[in-house]
């Protein structure tokens, strides 16, 4: 393992997460420059520069497939063509540039560091940002849902970051490598998810954990005891308190939010006024959609798939769906340690995308989705097999053994095709 790259990789990942989370609430980017936009852009550029020089000078690069970049390229081109006709070129180009910088940074980091090192750095960054946001947002808990203070994350955005940490802790448990710290972090961030009141995130997280649990080969006694104790505590909570009922209904608004989503989804089916808009959409900057026959005029798009239809048209929607399927199939074919983590993360991210936007945008979920999709490709699988065969720990500053090194590393230059 090229340990000298770790500090730069960790800092770059932290800057990526910081630059992709919300720095303010309720505002939609419309193309104008302000301190927030400039600040996020600077974080992205610094992360890109760190990624560019992450690997030691003269060191070989890790192999990486590029098929996902073709999917992303088609989606971005479709959005730009749609934005040109829809009149949203300036903000859509700015968002496309942000997505491109993010993608380039992820590719460079994956070429410079082992898969688990990068993903661990991303998960740690998500956990750090979520912890700071939650601690500074504790006063908002009086309103029923905890939200971020600094940065001012929406409860659903905070739940995303917390859920990623829980998935990582569950993965460590499935592999039999969990320690008391993993259990502490997993339990703490699971409690944070509950406090956010994010029903979609929490339920999808449960599904992701179940998908990973199916890969357990030998169930430890401690795990069984812990699961039974947790189940018993949950049963007591359900019987003696109304916590679960309150969580699901959120003070009587449990069905209202879903009904409002149906309004936007129905409007998306007839929003386009030409075949060009149906094909290419209206650009990545389109966040609201006009809604007829309601007392309000427009509504925020709150599904990544409905957003894909409106922003990138039928072309972008079809390509995004094919991309997600590509990533899932590739994850199933990955070596077991990677397969368990990849499937857990994809289940959480893609499941959440049904009712939340941000799958293909400059967001933490896109950062994780792109990293997993790139690593799950056929062009990256040889390196994953080699990484899975390496010793769990290596002495500092010692590269991989020769046989594994030949599989994992490739000469510096263009990435291999996926």
In words, what does this structure look like?
- With 418 residues, the chain is mostly helical.
- The protein has helices spanning 6-20, 35-52, 67-86, 89-112, 115-136, 155-174, 180-196, 199-213, 221-240, 243-249, 256-268, 275-280, 304-332, 336-353, 364-375, 378-389, 402-408, and strands at 61-62, 288-290, 298-300, 409-410.
- Strands 1-4 form a two-stranded antiparallel ribbon. A two-stranded antiparallel sheet has the order 2-3.
- A hairpin with a 7-residue loop joins β2 and β3 (298-300).
- α3 (67-86) packs antiparallel against α4.
- The chain is globular, with a radius of gyration of 22 Å.
- Mean pLDDT is 84; it is low at 252-256 and 391-418.
What's the layout of helices and strands?
Blueprint: H1 6-20, H2 35-52, E1 61-62, H3 67-86, H4 89-112, H5 115-136, H6 155-174, H7 180-196, H8 199-213, H9 221-240, H10 243-249, H11 256-268, H12 275-280, E2 288-290, E3 298-300, H13 304-332, H14 336-353, H15 364-375, H16 378-389, H17 402-408, E4 409-410
Largest sheet strand order: 1-4
**Topology, number of strands:** 4
Q: Tell me the span between the first and last alpha carbons.
A: 23 Å
User: How much strand content do the residues show?
Assistant: under 5%
Structural class estimated from helices and strands? mainly alpha
- What is the radius of gyration computed over CA atoms, rounded to a whole number of angstroms? 22 Å
Mean pLDDT: 84
Largest sheet, described in full?
A: 2 strands, antiparallel
The shape, in one word, is globular
């Amino acid at each position: 393992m090229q340990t000298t790259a770790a500090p730069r990789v960790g800092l770059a990942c932290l800057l990526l997460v910081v630059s992709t989370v919300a720095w303010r609430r309720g505002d939609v980017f419309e193309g104008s420059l302000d301190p927030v936009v400039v600040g996020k852009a600077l974080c992205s550029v610094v992360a890109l520069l760190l990624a560019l020089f992450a690997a030691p000078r003269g060191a070989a690069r890790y192999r990486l497939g590029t098929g996902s970049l073709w999917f992303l390229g088609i989606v971005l081109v479709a959005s730009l063509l749609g934005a040109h006709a829809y009149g949203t070129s300036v903000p859509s180009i700015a968002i496309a540039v942000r997505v491109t910088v993010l993608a380039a940074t992820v590719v460079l980091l994956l070429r410079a560091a082992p898969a688990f090192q990068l993903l661990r750095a991303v998960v740690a960054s998500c956990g750090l940002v979520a912890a700071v946001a939650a601690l500074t947002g504790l006063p908002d808990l009086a309103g029923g849902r905890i939200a971020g203070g600094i940065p001012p994350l929406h409860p659903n955005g905070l739940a995303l970051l917390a859920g990623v940490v829980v998935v990582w802790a569950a993965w460590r448990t499935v592999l039999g490598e969990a320690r008391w710290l993993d259990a502490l972090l997993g339990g703490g961030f699971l409690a944070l998810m509950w406090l956010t009141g994010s029903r979609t995130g929490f339920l999808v997280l449960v599904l992701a954990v179940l998908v990973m649990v199916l890969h357990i080969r030998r169930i430890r006694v401690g795990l069984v005891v812990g699961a039974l104790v947790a189940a018993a505590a949950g049963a007591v909570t359900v019987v003696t308190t109304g916590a679960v009922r309150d969580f699901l209904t959120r003070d009587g608004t449990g069905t209202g939010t879903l009904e409002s989503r149906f309004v936007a989804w129905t409007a998306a089916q007839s929003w386009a006024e030409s075949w060009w808009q149906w094909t290419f959409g209206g650009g990545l900057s389109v966040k609201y959609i006009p809604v007829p026959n309601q007392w309000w005029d427009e509504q925020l798009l709150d599904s990544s798939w409905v957003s894909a239809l409106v922003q990138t048209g039928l072309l972008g929607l079809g390509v995004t769906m094919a991309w997600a399927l590509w990533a899932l199939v590739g994850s199933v074919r990955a070596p077991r340690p990677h397969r368990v983590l990849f499937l857990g993360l994809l289940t959480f991210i893609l499941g959440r995308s049904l009712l939340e936007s941000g799958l293909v945008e400059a967001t933490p979920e896109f950062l994780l989705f792109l990293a997993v999709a790139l690593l799950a490709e056929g062009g990256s699988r040889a390196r994953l097999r080699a990484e899975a065969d390496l010793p769990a720990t290596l002495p500092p500053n010692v590269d991989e053994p020769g046989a594994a090194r030949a599989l994992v590393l490739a000469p510096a230059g263009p990435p291999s095709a996926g």
